[in-house]
Amino acid sequence: MPSAKTVSLDMHAMATLRYIRESMDAAGCVAVPGSAGIAMGMVGLAAMVLSLLPDLAQHWFAIWVAAGPIAALAGALLMTRSTSVVSFIATGTPGRKLLLGLIPCLFAGAVLTAVLWKANDIGAIPGAWLLLYGCSLISASAFIKMIVAWMGACFVALGVIAFMVPESLHVALLGLGFGGLHILFGILIGRDAHGR
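Request: output the structure for the sequence above.
Response:
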C-alpha cells in the first residue's frame, strides 16, 4: 500500500512536469496582441469601402496595394509594443523561424501579383492574396498561437472561393478576409490573452 508521501511526491512530479512543459511552450511561442489584428482589419475594411465607391471602383487594385503596407506597418508597430515579441525576436532562432514561416508565402504572393498584373489577369490576384496569406499564417502558427492556424485556414478557404466566384465579388471577399477575419481573430486573441 503506497504511503501518503508517495502520492504527494507523484502529484508534485506531475505538477513540475506540467510547469516545465508550459514553460517550454511559452519559450517557443510569441504572444501576438489582438490589437495588431484589429488594426490591420480596420485598414482592410477601409480599403474595401474605398474600393466599393463608384468613383474609385476601377482603382481597387491600387487601393489594396497601398493598404497592404499600411496594414503591415500598423500591425508591426503594435506587435513591437509587446515585450514577448521583442524578447522572442531578440533571442535569435525563434525569431528567424517565425520569419521563415511568414516570408516565403508573402514573397510568393508579391511575385505572383507582379506576374498576374503583367499578364493583365488581375482578376486572379484576390484569390492568390487570400490563399497565400492564409498559407503564411498556417506556417507561422508553429511559432505563434494555434488560433492563428485557424485564421490561416479561413483565409485559404476564402482564397479558394475567390477563384470560383465572379470578379464582382472579389473586393467583398478581400474585405471579409483582410478586414473581417483580422478583426474577428484579433478580438478572439485579445480575449484569450485576458483569460476571458
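The helical segments are 4-27, 34-52, 60-80, 83-90, 93-118, 125-140, 147-164, 170-193.
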